[in-house]
Amino acid sequence: MARTQGSIGAETHEKIREVAEELIAAHGYAAVSMRQIATAVGVQVGALYRYTPDKQTLLFDLMRNHLEQVQSAWDATDPTDAGPVERLEAFCRFHVRFHLDRPRAVFIAYMELRSLTPENYAVIETLRNTYEARLEAIIRDGQDLRVIRVPDARVATMALIGMLTGVTTWYRDDGRLDRGRVERIYWRLARRMVKV
Amino acid sequence: MARTQGSIGAETHEKIREVAEELIAAHGYAAVSMRQIATAVGVQVGALYRYTPDKQTLLFDLMRNHLEQVQSAWDATDPTDAGPVERLEAFCRFHVRFHLDRPRAVFIAYMELRSLTPENYAVIETLRNTYEARLEAIIRDGQDLRVIRVPDARVATMALIGMLTGVTTWYRDDGRLDRGRVERIYWRLARRMVKV
DNA sequence: GATTGAAATGAACAATTGTTCAGTTACTGT
DNA sequence: ACAGTAACTGAACAATTGTTCATTTCAATC
């Protein structure tokens, strides 16, 4: 028999995304079966295929969705008229904040690259590179204006990304520091790293 | 029929580790089957179970082995008589060098934590924490001696680890920079981050 | 109250999974 | 040459996988 609640399609679609994100982040794409997802949604396996052509696309959509949200959120935040240092501060704080707010999506976007087909991987990698290029552009601007100094702009970009993204691996909501403090500390570390 | 070459057990054992590390690093633990490993080794599935009680233990041994090697290699490198800044330089350079030399093992150690049983996870996490604690101790020593200054020793530790470990995600042997240069650049970035 | 169309079921499918083990092969020491 | 043993095979197993689809359920419309 069908669900007794009057759940319409769009709601199920959204629930599938949420549940899939949670399960995949916790156990990994290959370790989570469509049946597990269906059970967690409260539905039979077959029903999932009304919303996704296959499991791979389900993962791909999650990752693309996340990366596009990062991009557009940063576009809306980037103080493009400000100087490089101010923009760098905005970027660092944004990155930490955004990642702390979406730890599961971040996890998946960084851990499940291997699970993508080559075609899907190419799409996701392009999105990632685009985002990282924005940071690198800020650093190079700063170098040109002599308000930022680093040994190598490219390495500094990757070092910053790695350092900032790593926050998701240790931060806990019930820990010693709240998000605001963590955001501030990371920016102070970053500024020391790049200041002239 | 058995192998025609006169391969003895120890060689097969070693080959299994190598092949498993390569395959798991490339496709992930859950996505690699025992049959794939066996085929790559040049053996039938059943033969693997002469060397490992099960698949989970195979993964666990790889990870424990790697982390123990990191620890003992650092113990042999740590200039314990030197000052905190010098020790920090040694740590940063060691970490980058060691990770660039073992990208697959590093990948597995960071990506497959979810694939471990709770008991095995606890063991691996303890090893990781021990290693990270060494870095944190150096930073705190430096703070006490007023030769290192950071906003927060704990966060700085995690930021450094994240930044240094991230090198494996972008470094390519045929890239613009060789390992020595990368090692040096990372240390310069780290030093700027923590200097008083 | 009958009709419709979307939503979901539930059973089936071929393939693949980790693991076991009785049997075969190859090597070592005598 | 022979026995003993370690290494390995090859087939089998129960369970689980992603995916399909004829059928059923349900809510809205006429």
List the chains of the largest interface with their residue counts.
A-B, 39 and 39 residues
Average of pLDDT of chain A: 94
What is the chains' assembly state? homodimer
**Global shape of chain A:** elongated
Domain module tally of chain A: 2
Helicity range of the residues of chain A? over 70%
What structural category characterises the helix and strand content of chain A?
mainly alpha
Q: Largest sheet of chain A, described in full?
A: none
Number of strands of chain A: 0
How many H/I helical runs of chain A? 10
Q: Which fold name is given in CATH as the topology of the largest domain in chain A?
A: Tetracycline Repressor, domain 2
CATH class of the largest domain in chain A: Mainly Alpha
The rounded Rg of chain A comes to 20 Å
Q: Architecture of the largest domain in chain A in CATH?
A: Orthogonal Bundle
CATH superfamily of the largest domain in chain A: Tetracycline Repressor, domain 2
Q: Quote the distance from N terminus to C terminus of chain A.
A: 68 Å
Which key terms come to mind for this protein?
196 residues; DNA-binding; Arc Repressor Mutant, subunit A; mainly alpha; Tetracycline Repressor, domain 2; homodimer
Structure description:
The structure is a homodimer of 196-residue chains. Chain A has 196 residues and is mainly alpha-helical. Chain A has two domains: 1-52, Homeodomain-like (Arc Repressor Mutant, subunit A, Orthogonal Bundle); 54-194, Tetracycline Repressor, domain 2 (Orthogonal Bundle). The first copy, chain A, contains ten helices and no strands. Chain A has helices at residues 9-27, 34-41, 45-48, 55-77, 84-101, 103-111, 118-144, 153-165, 167-170, 179-194. In chain A, helix 4 packs across helix 6 (103-111) and helix 5 packs antiparallel against helix 7. The longest helix of chain A has 27 residues, at 118-144. Chain A starts with 8 loop residues before the first helix and ends with a helix. The relative contact order of chain A is 0.12. Mean pLDDT of chain A is 94; it is low at 1-7. Chains A and B meet through helix 8, helix 9 and helix 10 of A and helix 8, helix 9 and helix 10 of B. Chain B binds a DNA duplex (30 and 30 nucleotides) through helix 3.
